[in-house]
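G., before I forget:
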Amino acid sequence: MSNNFSDKILEHYSDFSEKSILNRFIKHRTIVPLIKKRTNGEVFEVSEIGHSLENRILYLLKYGNGKTKILVWSQMHGDEPTATAAIFDIFNFLENSVFSAEQKLISEKCTVYFVPMLNPDGAEVFKRRNAADIDINRDALALQTPEGKSLMQFCKQIKPDFAFNLHDQEIYYSAGDTKYPAVLSFLAPAFDPQKTCNTSRENSMKLIAALNRMLQNYIPNRIGRYSDDYIPSAFGDAVQKCGTSTILIESGGFYNDTEKQFVRKMNVLSLLTAFKTIALNTFDDENINDYLSIPLNKKNKLFDVIIKNITLKFNDFTLTADIGIRQKMIVFDNLNSSKWLIEDIGDLKNFNAYTEIDANSQFISQKINIGSDATDILQILNFSS
Ligand SMILES: [Zn+2]
């Protein structure tokens, strides 16, 4: 596919992006008005698939009347909101007259079911698990959480052809052995321990191959492939097993993008391109080897900051070392703050960072430890975040 469509999305993104969502801390009450205002509109059919443990409504928005059914859900982990924001951008896109040709194509060929924010109780306190501290994404078989049960029941009811399972991953994954962060990572989940490829799973792979090629134009070498180890209780694996071509998208990190607003835009680009590719059936021309050659994600190869070549004093010794620093989110009483913590000290030549500072053998006299606050050292080196 040419890049005309993706270029056009980016060109007009600021016209249709959802302006009431500007950071990662989206709550159920943030999205309810954005859903309610669509209740009597002509573009979406709004309904409910169930309620969370704390009785928040799990909304469903249906778009289009085509034969191919696509199910999209986001934020089954409460602190993974990037795709939820992207979904509300997409709702605006689907109502924006600039894109009437694409809307006609998608709505005639596909029916898209959106379940934004499957874990509103977790989102309320910015935590991964639901209110009972169960990981919904390990509840696909036991189905003890009302959130997971509602999703699986709905999935079995409509039997989607494609499903998009949307998450965030830590920003410290790199795209293979590169020094670059994995801005997005993709997975065509396995449905058995042997990781068998049937037509349905191959279609997941082919679609990802198409998305990867498109994305390389904008974020070259910054796409990763997630491990396909089979986890029977995970939703992606369980839905794939039902014969639905399932695609996991993990939102990672980008430079100077603490609130992940650039990564959100890349989600919009990916999902809309996926809808169009499905509507046109062009994923069928793709080769699964183009999926398999996407580099695997490498965990914990990145720091927020690496200070290179600092001189440390320990009793009578002087040592030269690098210091790896990461920013940790602290959520307390609905207030979000962050702390810079030292996570590694030593030879970090084989690691990379969003920001590297060369200390040029500058000497620091205070004692530092793993886990200690890095704010003072960063100040000494004139680092401003
Ligand atoms: Zn997740």
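Residues 77, 80, 137, 167 surround zinc ion (CB under 6 Å). The chain has eleven helices and 15 strands.

More on Monday.
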